[in-house]
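User: I'm writing a tutorial on reading structure tokens. Could you give me a worked example: one chain, its sequence, then its tokens, then a sentence or two explaining what the tokens reveal?
Assistant: Sure. Here is the example chain.
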Amino acid sequence: GAFALRRGFRLEPDAAVAIVEDVFTTGKSTREVIETVRFNAGRVVAVGSIVNRGVESEAFPVPSRSLLSLRVPSWTAEDCPLCARNLPLDSPGSRWAAPR
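And here are its predicted structure tokens:
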């Protein structure tokens, strides 16, 4: 269940690593990759994304940059307008994608 380097891939001790994502949504995946790099003796020097959907730059322990920032509103279940209308919700994203 934890991120790991692919078989045969390794980092040189103290290797400088920049992590680049397609989208920052919560920052969880990026923080998991940071920990994986550190566990494998690498040194994360920066993180970036193509799109930032609302993660604050202070959310990461290293400098972060994004090409585009989009503010995407979110609500608690009690305040969700779709929930109030009993509309079904979905969870798009690769973390929840069905296996092919």
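What the tokens reveal: The radius of gyration is 17 Å. The chain has a mean pLDDT of 88.
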